Automatic annotation (TrEMBL):
Identification of the protein by name: SusD family protein
Coiled-coil zones: none
UniProt main location, coarse: membrane
Pfam families in UniProt: SusD_RagB
Source organism of this protein record: Candidatus Kryptonium thompsonii
């Protein structure tokens, strides 16, 4: 009996240890941080950066669309209703999640650019198109952060004014502009259905920097970045979506086409302009529906050549040059299959520029910023920016 009393506990101990070890299964396909510190991982790093940006971008379009009433709430989400009403609380979970998506996209892109430098060395990194693209995604994520919040912390630091966040974006685009001519002409960047050349990457960086300058209030600087129309010929750079997984779906399609959560707002209920593809109400669908993104796999433009034209038009307006401004505007209209338009005075020209931007950039996340830039009376008595979320305020000791 004494022997059994000794053996039985030992057997249980051995069984426990054996079971514990057998349950400790290691995933052979798990990607560790160490595995990313090698040159063969660089394409995967940049693919992750692009995916995180695409995810935040669709939420930027939805949330800013609701606050600007480019989109209106027709569903059951109370967080969407707050945005539509222009009275967003700091514990609005949709807003707080979206803020996290933007900050993640920004951090992943900035960290990815630094990681590429650590892997191959700074000189070699600055000759890689993947490094340039990481900087570009960082720049656009920072523009979204500055466009939507009136100042924001970064990485748990103190509140940074919007102007400085735009400056941070400008620095990323400037880095790309400075290095892109040194990229091998044979190197390209595969972006979904697009294959971007170094020349196109350079144009994207110039246009991204111009947007940041314009939104910061530097119209002359923005014009200087887009003054050469030939640089932007047929340029388009997309955020890529697919039907592979839910996270890769285009959520603007999900919420503003497939499901009746948001509809097109009154100012964008426009017919006869292919730049604003909307569907008027029917007997079974009593609301205006966007048709710009008609599938889960519809890509979303990040920048297009038409934006350069409208920045130049706005600059020519500031110089009192109606003829040159109309030339830029009508190039865009002709490309959309529309007839030329004309105005004879500066106030009418400014109204035209505002209208053209509203239509050209429909559901591309810029309408709210334009309402502020042009002092639109719609924003009177309602929020013009999103509030800093409670999670950030509760967890950031520097606020």
């Amino acid at each position: 009996m004494k022997v059994l009393r000794v053996i039985i506990p030992i057997v249980f101990i051995l069984l426990y240890v054996g079971c514990k070890q057998s349950l400790q299964v290691e995933n052979p396909n798990q990607i560790t941080d160490e595995n990313l510190n090698q040159s063969t991982a660089i394409p995967a790093i940049v693919a992750g950066i692009a995916a995180d940006f695409a995810y935040e971008y669709q939420w930027t379009i939805i949330c800013s669309g609701l606050l600007s009433n480019e989109l209106i709430h027709i569903g059951s989400f109370p967080t969407f209703r707050e945005m539509h009403d222009g009275n967003v609380q700091d514990n609005n979970t949709t807003m707080e999640d979206w803020y996290g998506y933007i900050q993640r996209a920004r951090w992943v892109a900035e960290n990815g650019a630094e990681r590429i430098k650590q892997i191959v060395g700074e000189d070699s990194a600055r000759k890689m198109i993947e490094y340039a693209m990481a900087r570009i995604y960082a720049g656009f994520a920072l523009i979204h952060l500055a466009d939507m919040w009136d100042g924001s912390p970064i990485d748990g630091g103190p509140l940074i004014p919007r102007a400085q966040i735009y400056d941070r974006a400008i620095a990323h685009f400037t880095e790309v502009i400075n290095i892109v001519d040194g990229l091998p002409s044979t190197r390209t960047f595969k972006n979904g259905h697009q294959t971007l050349t170094p020349a196109q990457v350079k144009a994207i960086a110039y246009l991204g920097r111009a947007r940041a300058k314009l939104h910061k209030g530097d119209l002359t600087g923005a014009y200087n970045d887009v003054a050469n129309p030939a640089l932007f010929t047929n340029l388009r750079f997309d955020a890529v979506y697919s039907e592979n997984t839910g996270r890769e779906n285009n959520l603007v399609y999900i919420y503003a086409y497939d499901r009746p959560e948001v509809a097109v707002g009154p100012r964008h209920q426009i017919q006869g302009d292919p730049r604003v593809p909307v569907q008027s109400p029917t007997s079974t669908r009593p609301y205006w529906r966007q048709a710009k993104y008609p599938t889960r796999a519809a890509d979303i433009p990040i920048v297009e050549w038409q934006e350069a034209n409208l920045i130049r038009a706005e600059y020519f307006y500031s110089q009192g040059n109606i003829t040159s401004a109309l030339s830029e505007i009508n190039q865009n209209r002709r490309a959309a299959g529309l007839s030329d338009t004309t105005v004879s005075d500066l106030p009418s020209l400014l109204n035209l520029i505002r209208e053209e931007r509203k239509r050209e950039f429909f559901l591309e996340g810029m309408y709210l910023q334009d309402l502020r830039r042009f002092n639109d009376p719609f924003l009177q008595g309602r929020m013009a920016f999103f509030p800093l979320g409670r999670r950030e305020k509760d967890t950031n000791p520097n606020l």
